[in-house]
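We modelled each protein-ligand pair independently. The example shown here corresponds to the zinc ion entry; the chain sequence is given first, followed by the ligand as SMILES.
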Amino acid sequence: MLLMLVVFSVIIYLLLNFVATMQESSISLFMMIFTILIIYLILLPVISQFARMYRVAKMRQIMPSLLSVIKCQDCNYVLVREFLTGDYVFKNVGKCYKCGGNLYIDAIYLTSEKKGKGA
Ligand SMILES: [Zn+2]
């Protein structure tokens, strides 16, 4: 990632250097240095942000997910969702949208399944 940035800045440097020699003035040389500085200031936070996002995405792929299984007392309705803070087995989590019976947490478990990149 850093190597890419160095290569990119060298290309810009050479390009601007070429322009500077064409015009042959000290003002253009100053402008060249100033432009490189601005590019660095803009690109560095953007690149570091992307690197951080990439690391988080990688970590999420490895990390197993904790799931809560919600069941209805009266009918066969079952819902599996991500574990939420405060979840425990036999906790009442509301009314069933199908029959109006009580929904409770039947099980909480970890999955070793790898997540997709989008999730
Ligand atoms: Zn139900």
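The CA atoms of residues 13 and 36 lie 7 Å apart.
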